[in-house]
Write a structure and sequence with these properties.
The chain has helices spanning 2-25, 90-96, 187-190, 231-240, 268-280, 306-320, 345-358, 381-401; strands at residues 31-33, 40-41, 48-49, 62-64, 72-73, 80-86, 101-110, 116-125, 130-131, 139-144, 178-185, 206-209, 215-217, 247-252, 285-292, 328-331, 362-365. It folds into two domains: 29-144, no CATH class; 175-401, 3-Layer(aba) Sandwich (Rossmann fold). Mean pLDDT is 80; it is low at 7-48, 58-69 and 158-162. The strands form four sheets. The chain has a seven-stranded mixed beta sheet, sandwiched between helices. A six-stranded antiparallel beta sheet has the order 2-3-7-8-6-10, with no helix packed on it. Strands 1-4 form a two-stranded antiparallel ribbon. By secondary structure, the protein is an alpha/beta fold. A hairpin with a 5-residue loop joins strand 12 and strand 13. The longest helix is centred in the N-terminal third of the chain and has 24 residues, at 2-25.
């Protein structure tokens, strides 16, 4: 016992020493990150990373940033790097490094004032020893020696709204007057069309929970997103059926490009959504969830089991929330979605509709007539608004039955 205790003390001392030595190697004001893990911030707490694509998660601390006179130092022997940068800096970055490939992932960075900035990921083959340029928010090094992206991955730079300063939500003291809803799934639950971001008008009765569990007046993009999703129009229709003293809070948990396996019990996104829901329940009443996912499972070997796995996920979610009647509305894949050369999208569509129309306490929101934004994958902002109405209609029907 005494030897074990001494070993524990020695291990703690060595761990603290390693951490201290690492901290000394990081220049003041330089960003550090656990190779893509979230939450993340620099040493002085200026910026916080709200969402990081899971494929770049890891454990190795990497020095990073380009700020002022400092350059991003690329680890020796790197055959490639994945760098994050302010999306508005993408054109300048590609001009400086023409071999760079813009990846589809977009995530959010927040400053101490809660202002959100959209960041993009770029893949750079054969990077130079140092990378620098006139970039607004610096460069963030996420991963080294990663496989090259699939052909055709490069995307046009999205148009983004100007930096938005969020307004804190006045949360009702009475929890029954604050209805909260989970938004779960992949990118179409977040939205990718940025064309309407500059014209939105905020509703002070609709809130959105950020990555730190704080409530702000909802404003697209919601936490983790980059465009207009169905959440705010969904919330507006829920409010239209409620007294004027009720507010609605949206718990955004969706992550683009994710398979159902990560949303099944034990998966990282399932557990995170459950944790965020329980956190929100401290201030509000959890009234339901809306789900959009399936594009990531529209492949042979996954599509055939999608119905059973989705049904099991709903059973587990209700059990873990302690509410066997918890209402969930599942949204249909876009009718335009049909990846080539092989696709089982029709199988997944059939599974989603069957779950939404036959599983108890589950509703279905159809996507018939809703258009894509030009990529045959993501809905337009207008389509997302209509989709939100359909989600709300199905949700109100479930709640009436309950």
């Amino acid at each position: 016992m005494r030897a074990a205790g001494l070993a524990g003390v020695l291990f703690l001392f060595v761990s603290q020493l390693v951490s201290a030595l690492w901290a000394q190697t990081v220049p003041a004001g330089t960003f550090t990150v656990q190779n893509g893990s979230a939450p993340w911030s620099d040493r002085v707490g200026q910026w916080a990373l709200a969402e990081v694509p899971a494929k770049f998660a890891g454990t190795t601390p990497l020095p990073q940033q380009n700020c002022g006179s400092r350059a991003l130092v690329v680890p020796p022997g790197s055959t490639s790097v994945v760098v994050g940068l302010n999306t508005k800096d993408v054109p300048a970055f590609v001009a400086a490094y023409p071999t760079a490939v813009l990846l589809p992932e977009i995530f959010s960075v927040q400053n101490p004032k809660g202002q959100s900035i959209a960041y993009s990921l770029v893949y750079v083959p054969a990077p130079p020893a140092t990378m620098k340029g006139s970039f607004q928010s610096g460069l963030v090094l996420f991963a080294i020696n990663t496989p090259p992206p699939a052909p055709g991955t490069a995307l046009p730079v999205p148009k983004l709204a100007s930096v938005y300063a969020p307004t804190p939500l006045a949360v009702p003291a009475d929890k029954s007057k604050f209805e909260v809803y989970l938004l779960i799934g992949q990118s179409n639950m977040l939205g990718r069309d940025t064309s309407k971001l500059d014209s939105q008008v905020d509703n002070p009765r609709i809130g959105s929970m950020d990555g730190h569990g704080k409530w702000f007046v909802a404003h697209e993009p919601l936490w983790g997103g980059s465009g207009t999703g169905p959440g705010i129009s969904f919330a507006a229709d829920i409010l239209a059926a409620r007294p004027d003293d009720v507010k609605v809070g949206l718990i955004s948990c969706a992550v683009g490009g994710t398979p159902l396996s990560r949303w099944e019990k034990g998966g990282d996104l399932y557990e995170r959504a459950l944790s965020r829901a329980k956190l929100a329940m401290k201030e509000g009443t959890l009234k339901g969830a809306i789900w959009h996912q399936g594009e990531g499972d529209s492949h042979p070997g996954l599509a055939e089991t999608y119905r059973a796995r989705l049904t099991k996920m709903l059973v587990d979610l209700r059990a873990d929330l302690g509410n066997p009647d918890f209402p969930v509305v599942v949204g249909q894949l876009g009718m335009f979605f049909d990846p080539k050369p092989t696709s089982d999208a029709s199988v997944v569509r059939a599974a989603i509709k069957e779950v939404g129309t036959t599983v108890p306490h589950t509703g279905f929101a159809d996507s018939v007539g809703l258009e894509h934004k030009g990529d045959h994958l993501h809905f337009t902002a207008d389509a997302q608004g209509e989709f939100g109405h359909r989600y709300a209609k199905a949700m109100l029907k479930l709640q009436a039955q309950k």
